[in-house]
Specification:
- The structure is a single chain.
- The protein is an alpha+beta fold and 114 residues long.
- It has one domain.
- The protein is built from three helices and seven strands, in the order αβββββββαα.
- The strands form two sheets. The chain has a five-stranded antiparallel sheet.
- α1 crosses α2.
- The chain is elongated, with a radius of gyration of 14 Å.
Length: 114
Amino acid sequence: MLTYTETRLIVVGKLVKLGWSPCCNHVAAIARKSFQTVSGKQEAHAYLSKGDNFNRALKGTYYWGAVCNLLEPHGILIPLDTDSKACAARVTQFALTVDAVVSDSYGVRLRTVS
C-alpha cells in the first residue's frame, strides 16, 4: 500500500511528464496546466485527497466563466492498495481526460476557429 506522500510523488511526477507543472507545497493544488483560450491562458489544477479507508481522489478544476468547473465530474479514484504502476496508469487516464474536456471547451474551440 502506498502512503499519501508516495502516491503524491507518483501523481505529480506522472503529471509533470504529461505537461503539467508542480504547484508549491503551500497551496492545496498539487499540479497545474495552462491552456490557451480565446481570452488568454487559463489554468487547470489537480488536487489529491488524503482519502477515506479505500481510495484517494484525484480531482481537477478548470473554470469557464465564474462558476462552471468543467472538470467536476471527471475525477478518478486511486485505491489505497494500488501499486505504483497502476497508480501511474490512473493518472495518465485523468490527464488525458482533462486534455480532452478542456480542448472541447468553448474558449479553446473558439480560439482554434479564430
